Amino acid sequence: MTGRTAKIASLCECGSTAVRQVNQFILHDELWWDSEFSCGSCGTHACEHAGPGPAPGDVREALLAAHGPVRLRLVGPVPGLVPALKVLREVSAVSVQRARELVGELSHDGLLGTLSEMEFLKARLQLRGVQSVVVNRSVAR
Questions:
Q1: Its domain of life (predicted)?
Q2: What does the alpha-carbon distance between residue 16 and residue 18 come to, in Å, rounded to a whole number?
């Protein structure tokens, strides 16, 4: 399972500073995220969310801040754009035009995202015969 965790300071109803732990991971061939809340002062603990789907902006930003982005690039020539376009439309729910732009980015500098997002996209591309690689952002463009 590929996943990452980040902790976010959060305000509890009791007025104390609490911790919100957010996670993003791949489970059963799906991208999941979850969020847990805990307050050491009043003892409140709660699972705020657990399920498949893209992480909301604050969760994604916390993961990127904690671990930095990774880059997904296509490996070698792509036999055709259609398989990659289909994957990007399925995963990202974007228009055909936006999917073409994303394939262009994949073919050149690569796409940036969380480790889980890029590993998930890589696995989906591989199922359609499109080879890609996940690299650290610091690798030369």
A1: Bacteria
A2: 6
